[in-house]
Amino acid sequence: MRAWAVLGVAALVAAAAGVWLLLPDARSLPEGGAYAPDLARGAAIYAEACASCHGADLEGQADWRSPGPDGRLPAPPHDRTGHTWHHPDRVLLDITLRGASAVIGGGYESDMPGFAETHSEAEIRDVLAWIKSQWPDRERQIQAEITAEDEAAR
């Protein structure tokens, strides 16, 4: 019986270590393990760094699906009318940290910069959490399912 208990504890420790290694943000989680977003900080950073392009009310720029004269797409909305909620958290974080051109690649040009040099990953997670908090329940649920599927596939 004692051998089974030891094996059980060892399995739990191994599983926890595996999760810690697989999650991109696991090493930056606060003490206690669970990420608790700071929505007020996220809203403030969004207002300072994002609203000038994506709109104070997450509305994006006009004609965001049509390239402008420079061939680049305007900033999309982050509300339910846009496509932000169609992407898993990992992709949203990557685009915000590294910029759209770096993530999409293949010569794609975008005005969306990366913010890794000016904001921490935790700050960006707070911004994304605040954006998601503005969505209706349906879009939040769909995006959570997309994120869960993405995490399960990794």
TrEMBL record:
PROSITE patterns: CYTC (PS51007). InterPro entries: Cyt_c-like_dom (IPR009056), Cyt_c-like_dom_sf (IPR036909), Cytochrome_c-type_DH (IPR051459). Residues 37-135 form the Cytochrome c domain. The keyword Metal-binding applies. Keywords: Heme, Iron, Metal-binding. Residues 61-85 are annotated as: Disordered. This is Cytochrome c. It comes from Sedimentitalea xiamensis.
